[in-house]
Amino acid sequence: MSRKASAKAFRRLGRWLVVAALTGAPGVGAKPPAPVAPEEGRASTSDSLVGVVVAHHSLDMTSQQSGRLQVLKVRLGERVEAGQVVAQLELEPLQLETAVRKAQLQAAQAEVSRTELLLVQAQQRLKREQSIREFTAAEAVESAETDVALAKVNVEVAQARRAEAKALLDAASRNLETAMLRAPFAGRVTELYQAPGVMVGPATAILRLVSEELRLRFAVPEHLATSVRAGTRIQVRLPALGMTLTGAVDSLAPEVDPASRHQKAEARLFLEGAQREQLATGLLAEVELVPAPVSKHTP
Q: pTM for the complete prediction?
């Protein structure tokens, strides 16, 4: 292999390492992506920075509890709103449990009412015994006082059982609510991992949701990192779409990737409506830093 070919292969490998660092390493044995052919009449952009279009938020949604997946309420590629129900576990067992807990709470409330009534009766008897203390035995007053003390204890026990029953009902109601998976943010469904009828749990991914807000993640060589800061303007070329965009840097990672010797940076893209519909996550981009305008002010 000639020296020129070796240098070209080395640059290609370096760009592949950068993309792997930006999107997650593809694993041992994975092949580098094929290079994108330059447009006719356009010089190679081997010196430009490498970037990838990513979603601002992405989430593999899971259930907070175990159960049978009853229905998926969305389709692949569908747009959902924040708070929209996207999947639902089997509800009947949870509904039955909630009904049982409601009945237990009602019984506990009735027991509190009964013990409170007995306490009032014991207090009234004590009051009567105290009013006729001079004409009755001392044991009668002591007995009435003991009955009041026991009645108070019974009220406290009944109130504790009522609190326990309410906590169990709250937990059952929460399980019933979380059995309906709601989208935490607006976005699109990009993966459906499960089908209705399967058992799922907290570790089981059901679907993948990505936000509609797209950003650009790109790699900055360590020798250029000092020239990149929040607000730095960039020009972004997407070879797959033949599209050129502009953007501005939002953040720069504080560490250098040991394999590629680059730092990750993220930028917001300035998009028009039609451009947004054409973009997809995972698109490779060529990024160029736009020099800051030179001030015409003469000191």
A: 0.62
